[in-house]
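User: I've been going back and forth on whether these two constructs are worth ordering. Before I decide, could you fold them both?

Assistant: Sure. I'll take them in the order you sent them. The first construct and its structure tokens:
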Amino acid sequence: MSYIIVFVISYLIGSISGAYIIGKIFLNKDIRKYGSGNAGTTNAMRVLGKKAGILTFLIDFLKGVFVAFLINILFSRNYVPLSIFAAVLGHDFPFYMNFKGGKGVATTLGALAFLDLKLTFICYLVWLVSTLITKIVSVGSIGFYIFVIAIFTIYSDLSISNKFIIVMVALLGIWRHKDNIKRLLKGTENKIGGVR
């Protein structure tokens, strides 16, 4: 029963979409109908503007931190990986948005930072360096998820079952970038600034 409660609470908090809320309330725009159609930081930045993009990131990042913190307090650290997975599912597939949300990078980053700040920082650096070198956000995001799998599997003190959950979170993140991967292979993926 505890696992079900953790999953439901985390999913509902995770389903709070920064890009959707900012777009609808302040700009009267449904982010899903513009740009890439993704309710996440990158598309919010392109469609809603830089300030809205930064605010979107902060909302999605902080809800990841909050979910992990809340579940850790109410239950225990052992439940946190499940809460991360459920929160990312909520972000990616929010029920009130016809299950069309974001890709979960900021939420994953925030939640993992609470779980293990040092390991997450390494993964974040991979995202940062990859993005700066290629000027393609999706390359950084995919690199981030790949390193999450490697770093958390090898160096974290989590149980085997919880390591498996973290791997599932990362694989979900990579899968959510499947269209980006197709465009990368075709050489048509947008770079920072909108240049191909």
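The second construct, handled the same way:
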Amino acid sequence: MAKSHQKYTTLTLLILLTISSLILSLTTAYDYTFSRSLSPKKKLGLKQEKLTHPHFYFHVRHRQRPKPYGCRSRPGTNFERFGGTEFRLRGGSIDDPLTAGPELTSKKIRSAQGIFVSTSQSDIELSVVLNYVFTEGKYNGSSLSILGHKPILNTDRELPIFGGSGLFRFARGYAQLRTYMFNPTISNDATVEYNVYVWHY
């Protein structure tokens, strides 16, 4: 009888040890990784990458419009422009029209929304955060995102495109800027031509 009881106790201990080991192995084997590799085509439906060339005109207007396209915040501190977020030469937030042609009356196809901040103590140079928000055609509802350095007095400028949304997901590329018109006598009104080259799916 004692042998039978000892055998039963040993068997119980073995079962308990097996269950404990199994629980421990399941706990330690579970993968808590926060990322994994995916197939872009199977998971997201992404096909071959393509290069698109949007071309439009960016309009800076102040007195000629019933509503301002930018808002002022505060002037710079130790230098007249540096660090300021006051609209235009010192910076500010914008919502500017982008049109198909150089005339302000031509078809509006998107808006430029973002922030300009003066970041040079010696020249008129801005750091910009912009979103080109498309409002027409097949790209309606999509956007391109820009973050970069803008020396506004240079004839030719370039800004990097680092992302997008909608049909421009995974976008990358650059925008070439050339001043089409600048009138410093009317509140620094200007028209800037944009040639954009963007890779996306």
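Notes on the second construct follow. Residues 45-66+87-200 form a domain with the AOC barrel-like fold (CATH 2.40.480.10). Strands lie at 50-52, 55-60, 70-71, 91-99, 108-118, 125-134, 143-151, 156-165, 172-183, 189-200.
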